[in-house]
Write a structure and sequence with these properties.
Distance between the termini: 39 Å
Strand order of the largest sheet: 2-1-3-4-5
Strand content: 15-25%
Number of strands: 5
Shape: globular
Oligomer: single chain
Helix content: 25-40%
Order of helices and strands: HEEHHEHEEH
C-alpha cells in the first residue's frame, strides 16, 4: 500500500464519525512492514470524553497489537493535523513518522500553530503533509456546513 492508500483508510474512519455528531477525523497506525496495527476515529461526542481523539484511539490499538507502548518504526496517518495532546501521545509512543491530511489553524501542532516535534523532547518524529489535503479538508467542510444548516 502507498501513503495515499493508508490516508484513504483514515478517511474511511473519519466518515464514520458523522453519524455520531463527531468532527470527522480518522487515523491509522502502520508497522514498518506495512500492516495496519491500530485504527481510530474521533469519538468525543459519542463517548463524552475529551481525550477520545482518533490518534489516541489508534495509538492505543497499536500498542495492544504489539504488546508494547513503544511504536518505534511505525507510521501514523491522520486526516487532520494533530492537536497538542495527540502530538504528545505521538512523541511518547515513539512513532517514527506522521502523515497528516489537512492543516488545523486553531490547534495544529505540526507547524500550523507550533511544531511540537521540533521542541526539545526526547523523540522527534518526521512529519509529512498535507497529504490528500482536498479530500480531508472537503470532509471537514461538508461536516461543518451541515452543522450551520441546523
Amino acid at each position: 500500500m502507498t501513503d495515499q492508500d493508508y490516508m484513504r483508510e483514515a478517511l474511511k474512519l473519519a466518515g464514520e464519525c458523522v453519524s455520531h455528531g463527531d468532527v470527522p477525523v480518522g487515523c491509522v497506525v502502520v508497522s514498518a512492514d506495512g500492516e495496519i496495527l491500530g485504527r481510530g476515529r474521533n469519538r468525543r461526542e459519542e463517548l463524552g470524553r475529551a481525550t477520545a481523539h482518533a490518534e489516541v484511539e489508534a495509538i492505543e490499538a497499536a500498542c495492544a497489537a504489539l504488546g508494547s507502548w513503544r511504536l518505534e518504526g511505525c507510521r501514523l496517518y491522520v486526516t487532520l493535523e494533530p492537536c497538542p495532546m495527540c502530538a504528545g501521545a505521538i512523541i511518547n509512543s515513539r512513532i517514527a513518522e506522521v502523515y497528516f491530511g489537512a492543516r488545523e489553524g486553531k490547534s495544529g501542532c505540526c507547524g500550523s500553530i507550533l511544531n511540537l516535534f521540533c521542541e526539545n523532547f526526547n523523540h522527534h518524529p518526521r512529519v509529512y503533509g498535507p497529504l490528500l489535503e482536498q479530500e480531508c479538508r472537503g470532509l471537514l467542510e461538508e461536516f461543518f456546513q451541515g452543522l450551520r444548516k441546523i
